[in-house]
Write a structure and sequence with these properties.
By secondary structure, this protein is α/β, with parallel strands linked by helices. It contains two helices and 19 strands. The protein has one domain: Hexapeptide repeat proteins (UDP N-Acetylglucosamine Acyltransferase, domain 1, 3 Solenoid). The strands form four sheets. It has a seven-stranded mixed β-sheet with strand order 2-5-8-13-16-18-19. Strands 1-4-7-12-15 form a five-stranded parallel β-sheet, with helices on one face.
């Protein structure tokens, strides 16, 4: 019965609640029903999907845009003033293809303050994205990213550096998103 309730909660979250154009209601559902730790002035746009209850921490002033998929089974930490563009995928689990039972593995993803992740980027399990880093659109991140670096490609490789003088405060919200 517990499994049925858990699956129903995910169904509600991913196919009903994520379509309601009221951020206040969605935020209430994510905090109370899904047990996500979401601080003030952070925003999750419509259409985002999650793979399990709990395991997600979002610090203040961070934005997750439309249609992202976040898998918090291994834990996802999102720092302050993080901008995650639409269709980003953050995975914390995979399978060990070299075991006879195809064992599952998890690893926490940490996204530090002032990170910007471009549209359709994919972040794989067990990684740290350093403070102020930028991940270009469409990149697949397979290794830790150093602070203030700009990465792009498949797999993501360093293509530049970003200013270390970052002090902006994200406050991006749309009424019916």
């Amino acid at each position: 019965m517990k499994h049925v309730i858990s699956e129903f909660r995910l169904y509600l979250c991913n196919y009903w609640v994520n379509s309601i154009p009221s951020h206040r209601f969605r935020l209430w559902f994510y905090r109370i029903i899904m047990d996500f730790d979401i601080e003030s002035n952070s925003y999750i746009f419509l259409g985002c999907k999650f793979d399990c209850k709990s395991g997600l921490t979002i610090k203040k002033n961070s934005v997750i845009n439309n249609s992202c998929r976040i898998d918090p089974r291994g834990g996802v930490f999102i720092g302050e003033n993080v901008s995650i563009s639409q269709d980003v995928v953050i995975l914390t689990a995979d399978h060990d293809l070299n075991t006879s039972k195809f064992d599952g593995r998890t690893g926490k993803v940490v996204i530090e303050d002032y990170v910007w992740i471009g549209t359709r980027a994919t972040i794989l399990k067990g990684l740290i994205i350093g403070k102020g880093a930028v991940i270009a659109a469409g990149s697949i991140v397979t290794k830790d990213i150093e602070p203030y670096t700009v990465v792009a490609g498949i797999p993501a490789k360093v293509i530049g550096r970003r200013s270390i003088d970052l002090s902006y405060k994200l406050n991006y919200k749309r009424l019916f998103q």
